[in-house]
Structures are given as structure tokens and as C-alpha cells.
Amino acid sequence: DILINFGFGTKEQKTALLRENSDKNVFMDLTCFDPQEFYSEFAHLKGTFAALFCDDSKKMEIHFKEKDQRVLTKLNQLGFTPVETTIISCGFIFPRTIVQIINEAYFALAEGVASREDIDRAMKYGVNYPKGPFEWALGRESYVKLLLEELFLKTKDKRYIASSLISGL
What we know:
The protein is an alpha/beta fold. It is 46% helix and 15% strand. α4 packs across α7. The longest helix has 17 residues, at 94-110. The radius of gyration is 17 Å and the shape is globular. The relative contact order is 0.12.
């Protein structure tokens, strides 16, 4: 009776999955979207999480509309370390922050400030991040772009406008 969805996709794909599984309690990765929008439309959505930018420790933010210990147990069995949050906003906390850092790294690259390698090295050794911004983005560039677009649509704040290098993806 529980569905845990790790798929990253469009808003339409997430909505379709929720409609197709209205008979289940759904817990879904909504890294790139505003969970409140989904909660208001789908009563069977019981929790959301942000797993897109997990590092090697596999920490992920999770929000429960209705807490279910079985979900926490399953996530732990899969090697994740869920960190519960009461804050639900577009991009959660960590993904929202990391995409801005990634975006700034792309701006710096476009301006010729440094190479990808230099920027990654500066963030790993200068700020002690486990990965540099380009390493975080690797294979996730379209989702970085999607989250920045969602944040801009939601806030109209220009700091979420994607670098031309990301926009061209």
C-alpha cells in the first residue's frame, strides 16, 4: 500500500504517477518542485523528499505530511540517511542552495574566471565541500536548470536565472 518514488522527472510525469497510484500512500522525490502544490492536489501523497543531490553519505531531506516509520526503515535499508524537515518549499533547503552554487560556478566559467577543475578544487579544498559544483551537477544539469526555472517562476527573483551555459543545455 506504499509507493516510494525516486524518479526525477517533469511536473507532468510526477502528476501522472500520482494519478495512476491514487490507491497507495505515496512518498515521492520532489527535489525540483514545490511539495505544497502536490500536497494540495493529492491527499494520498504522504511525504516528499529531496534525493537528487545526495553525496556519498546519501543524506536526504524528507518531509512527512503523515509520518510512516516503514518509509524511514526502507530508506535506511537502501543506504539513505533521511533528515526530517518541517520546511517544505520549492527545492527544499540543500538542493535550493547547491543549485545556486552550481549556477554561480557556471557564471564564473562563462566569464573565464577559472576552469571547471579549478572551481571544483577551490570549493573542495577552500570550503571543504565533498564535491565541487561541477561534480555535483555532473549528469544532473537538466535538473539544475529545471530547479532554477521553478525557483524563478515561483519567486520572480533574478538570482535564479540560469547561466547561459546551463540555459543552453
